[in-house]
Design a protein that fits this description.
The protein is of the alpha/beta class. The chain has one domain (7-342): Alpha-Beta Barrel (TIM Barrel). It has 13 helices and 10 strands. It has helices at residues 31-35, 38-41, 50-53, 62-79, 106-126, 148-165, 189-197, 211-216, 221-230, 258-270, 297-314, 318-326, 330-342; strands at residues 7-9, 45-49, 82-87, 130-134, 139-140, 170-174, 183-184, 205-210, 234-239, 280-282. The strands form 2 sheets. The protein has an 8-stranded parallel β-sheet with strand order 3-2-1-10-9-8-6-4. Strands 5-7 form a two-stranded antiparallel sheet. Helix 10 links the parallel strand 9 and strand 10. The structure holds 3-O-methylfructose in linear form and magnesium ion. Magnesium ion (MG) binds next to loops. 3-O-methylfructose in linear form binds next to strand 4.
Length: 344
């Protein structure tokens, strides 16, 4: 009854602080410079979009893409870093404006499928069997513009194509209820797991839960994690925090609601998360008002908070808690947790 926790993040988590309402606030940092910071920040694995691994891949031949991926694998090996997953970025190209797999334009759907298959090849070249699908634009602003039943079938067809393309690849769906779309078709982990059941090999389809995405769906992230754990489908996490229902903030883990963060750490630890090699991903961004130079602290701070909350959880008097639960003295249990979080 204890997890094993090793940490990962993606290069996008060291960011320029851009938002739609102003200039970028920090200079961009080149990829090799980012890679060089992982170990010092306490991280051992890298999460990739396909074009983080191979920039401008749409303008390269498949051979050239795989060659670059192989070179990156050597760099990772030399740096002692593990590639955790590859995620096809299906939201930046003009052909993905109306969605990737659920676009109303057949040639755009073909682009999304081909790019996803290429992401599988990149994952193989890097040496990871995990693909993450954040289904960014698979949704709509106008109900009448798409058919929600057909959309689910189209996503299943795309997942099936990836599963058929490679016999070992596993696909973790990262649900999110909104942004950039008004509503998406796979908003929660229940939807993701349900979608997996419709595919040709449900055993190779699971989920990645991001704290902020669950909060945006009006749900408690630790309960979403419990749901996935009960299905053996929690294959990665994107821990962060979120201040209410607005755009996806990717705040440092625990920075808004420490108890909500505590309960995520606790459910992961109680149910042996990580013992099978799954990573703890931190999908956090530095504050927009943060000056450059210290704009990586959100990563090491989030990890530190995770480990501190793990200490809190492991030092609780479990037999006292069990007794309070048996007595149905939930007020006392509530206070016990608050005091533990207050360090009293
Ligand atoms: C979007 C996200 C993304 C995805 C990542 C992997 C920036 O809300 O959380 O992180 O996790 O792009 O596909
Ligand atoms: Mg994420």
């Amino acid at each position: 009854m204890a997890g094993t926790f090793r940490f990962s993040f993606g290069p996008w988590n060291i960011s320029q602080g851009a938002d739609p309402f102003g200039p970028t606030v920090r200079d961009s940092i080149a990829f090799p410079e980012k890679l060089a910071q992982y170990k010092a920040l306490g991280f051992d694995a890298v999460q990739f979009h396909d074009d983080d691994a191979v920039p401008n891949l749409d303008s390269l031949s498949s051979d050239a893409v795989l060659k670059q991926a192989a070179a990156l694998k050597t760099t990772l090996d030399d740096s002692g870093l593990t590639p955790e997953f590859v995620a096809p970025r299906l939201w930046e190209d003009p052909r993905t404006i109306d969605g990737g797999y659920t676009s109303n334009d057949a040639s755009c759907r073909a682009y999304a499928r081909d790019r996803s298959l290429q992401a599988v090849d990149i994952a193989n070249a890097l040496g990871t069997d995990l693909i993450v699908l954040w289904l960014a634009r698979e949704g709509t602003y106008v109900r009448e513009a798409k058919d929600s039943k057909r959309a689910v079938e189209q996503i299943v067809e795309a997942v099936d194509a990836m599963l058929a393309h490679d016999k070992n690849i596993r696909i973790a769906i990262e649900p999110k209820p909104n942004e950039p779309m008004d509503h998406t078709y796979i908003p929660t982990i229940g939807h993701a797991i349900g979608l997996g059941l419709l595919t040709s090999d449900p055993s190779r389809v699971g989920g990645l839960i991001e704290s902020a995405h669950a909060i945006l769906a009006g749900l408690d992230p630790s309960d979403e994690m419990g749901y996935a754990l009960a299905h053996n489908k929690l294959w990665s996490v994107h821990l962060n925090d979120q201040n209410g229902l607005k755009f996806d903030q990717d705040k440092a883990f625990g920075s808004v609601d420490l108890r909500r963060a505590f309960n995520q750490v606790r459910i992961l630890d109680k149910h042996d998360y990580g013992n099978d090699g799954a990573w703890v991903g931190l999908d956090v961004k530095a504050m927009r008002t943060q000056k450059a130079g210290v704009a990586t602290k959100h990563l090491s701070n989030s990890r530190e908070v995770f480990l501190a909350l793990l200490d809190v959880s492991r030092s609780l008097d479990e037999s006292k808690m069990d007794a309070l639960i048996t007595e149905r003295d939930y007020e006392e249990l509530d206070l016990l947790i608050m005091k533990a979080l207050l360090g009293r």
